[in-house]
Amino acid sequence: MHSIRSNNHCSFNLYNDNNQILKYSCFCGKAFNLTELYYCNGCQQINCRYCITEEIDFHYCPNCIENLNSAEASVNGNKCKKCFECPVCFNTLTYSVIGSKDVNTVTSPPTAGVTSPTTTAATPTTGETYFLNCGFCKWNSLDLKDEFKFDMPSLKAKKESSIQQLQVNKSIEALNKEAAELTSLKDKKTINRIKLAQAMKHFLGPQSKHQKHNQRKNFNKVEDRWESTSMAHPVPHNHLVPTPPPGQTLLSEAAIAQRVQPITMTEADQMQQQRIDAREFETLDPLGDTVKYDDDITPFLRDQVTECDQVSSLDQRFKNIAHSSLSTSSIHPQRKHLITKRSKRCKRCDKLLVKSEISLTKTEFKRQHFAFTYVPRVQITRVLWIDNDIFEVFLQFTNPLHIPLFINFPMSIKGSFISTDDNSQPIDLCEHETYINGILDETDDLEKESIIQTLKQNENPRYIIDRKDNKLTMKFIGKVGIEEEQIAPKDNNNNEEITNLTIIHLTESLANLSTSTEIPKFNSQFKDIKFTITLEFSTSSLSTAPSTSSSTTTADKQQKTLLKLLFDIPSNKFENTLQQ
Amino acid sequence: MQIQPKYFEKTQYIETLNGNKVSKGSILCGIMNIRLHGKTIIKPGVIVRGDLANVNIGRLSTVSENTVIRPSYKKFKGAVSYFPLNIGDHVLIEEGCVISAASIGSYVYIGKNCVISKRCILKDCCYIPDNTVLPPDTVVPSFTTFSGTPGRYIEDLPDCFEQYMKDYTTSIYESFLPINTLSKGRS
Ligand SMILES: [Zn+2]
Ligand SMILES: [Zn+2]
Ligand SMILES: [Zn+2]
Ligand SMILES: [Zn+2]
User: Fold this and answer.
1) Are residues A91 and B135, on separate chains, in Cβ contact within 8 Å?
2) Does B65 touch chain A (CB under 8 A)?
3) What number of other Cβ atoms are within 10 A of residue A94's Cβ?
4) Secondary structure (3-state) at A127
5) How near does any CA of chain B get to the CA of A161, in Å?
6) Which of A282, A332, A533, A578 is the most buried (most CB within 10 A)?
7) Which residues are the signal sequence here (chain A) (predicted)?
8) What is the ipTM of this complex?
9) Domains and CATH numbers, chain B
10) Is B171 helix (H, G, I), strand (E, B) or coil?
């Protein structure tokens, strides 16, 4: 199997160039920055975000940090009861008192400039009327109707429900029933079905208790339909949840119908034809009645507009979908979207990987299986050319655990040593097993201790550069270009095929170039040097080879984890690349 | 890539017993009200307005060049009252920021040229990318990224952000070395 460098998901990693250089391959072949990965103890493998299932633990408002369970959240359409967002700049709005001296000045709304002293929600005074005020763009709700003026800086949420919600409730009921039946039998197939049921449940939200009451109310409130289709945000990534077709929401009746009905061959042909037809634009008679100003400013508005700020932007209209007003003066503030805390499970064995505390004030986790705290962390300390197209990399391995880790560079593995896009490969690396000390160097295990001693004695100073605390610096030599025979055939899906790594031992003089004072400069063929280093690690000794161990093979249940490190080093990071 | 060591002129910095490294090019007003909890780095050009209210900066935190730390105030019954400003441990504030928050938790990363306006509350573990402007009274919950003008919720952070920041700020502190060690430091 070829590993692929995937784009890091978090913008935090995207902004940081350093976090793009080295990626760790997940068991499924996608490689990400270490911070975005998890490590499953059950299968002793790395999990990427495609290899986990997520469940919403609870919802909370990002502004008032109020905790809500899924039922409470869905009653309010996954929005906060108290907090509003500015319709213009989307900042959180604050409650302010109208005319701090006289309550009756409502008829002549004060201008935005003379805002009265703002009060926090903590100090409500009776008899005062509050309005919403934006501290960033100075928008306020004074020009709007009474809907956005309040007696108290908190208000009752209106019930939101829609035709879709009622449909959803029915299917949730069915799913609930099925899930209850299935939980009694738990083999692999049913686990998947339970997963699907749970996924659908979370996606669709729990049942509203006030169905009938809302049904009637819904007839005359069309805009409610839009408001209640809001989902928990961000939606947990779940491969079992279908993605909505573009331009439709997942729960619109058309979309549901579409998913249920199978598509026939003729329909497929028709769709193909329609797609071809759609490429030709209809010519319109500019004077005819057929011309529609679909999303344009009406002539009336065009005369009124004196500043471009008066026309709402697409973003503003999308947030305000019930009104979608063209002018900024009539768009309404929206309630703040709730965000979610999610627990994560291994997709392969269903083991719980991450579960956060219910309390939002703590950053602790009930369970935390981050790759960052289980897998040896790797950093490049130095990289340089030692000859044309031959380079040397110094890697520092950090053991995040309290016990020693054993690492080994396998010479043959199932699958491929080369990843997609690689333009280089390692050619000279340590062939013997070695170890990284734990954080506190706690070795209560005598047997382990003796293995470490033997490993230390047989250590090759050519590859092992430095040991310090829980850190180990090693040297690798790589070359630009790939040996053809090491590439497992791509179209062949047989993962069992074994590939071997060829080792070329370079002469000592070449290998020791990095220690000399004067290092010559070399050209780089590529802008980025991409290669893969494969290693195995385990908390118990990996090989049976060291003289002492006869029992290590049998007694230890600990498996080893195969780890592929995908490097993508820009050539300007090399110490001695010739600048062009 | 490993963080490349940054060397500083020993005469340009004041090192305290508990490992604080404060540049002589920084301006600390009302120094009695400023508490650095150890292993804190204050770079040149930084202004800390301790004369307005107490300022606490936690362990292994770094305040980069030309950042202004200014406690926020609130008008209350006509009078102006200043709030103390607490910054947690393992916080990294990049260059050119204006920090007027009411509190900043631990494991927080604030990028270059950010404005953290009056009375903002940044919880533990959050990330503010470069050029973000947080409006007054913004609350940034744990494990979130806020960016833009005005700064608003963008996405969740990786769950191991706390461990990442611990590791990152520690290595920043350890690679900030006085220039004398340059000759013997390199192997
Ligand atoms: Zn994966
Ligand atoms: Zn809220
Ligand atoms: Zn605004
Ligand atoms: Zn697993």
Assistant:
1) yes
2) no
3) 24
4) coil
5) 26
6) A533
7) none
8) 0.89
9) 6-174 (2.160.10.10)
10) helix
